[in-house]
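Here is the promised in-class demo. Please do not try to memorize the tokens; focus on the logic of going from shape to residues.
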């Protein structure tokens, strides 16, 4: 004969695991330090300035 399963416990365990997966994904996605964010921002600015400096003429 099969064991009795508490469906509420099963449901709560499944939801808890789903939340843990989502939290891990968010930590990877948003978990950057202030220095990393600033470094990336400065890199974008530097590349933008470089590309703007390479333009020959304004097309207008």
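The designed amino acids, position by position:
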């Amino acid at each position: 004969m099969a064991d009795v399963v508490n469906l509420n416990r099963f449901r709560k365990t499944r939801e808890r695991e789903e939340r843990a997966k989502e939290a891990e994904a968010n930590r990877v996605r948003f978990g950057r330090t202030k220095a990393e964010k600033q470094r990336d921002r400065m890199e974008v600015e530097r590349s933008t300035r470089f590309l703007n400096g390479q333009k020959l003429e304004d097309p207008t």
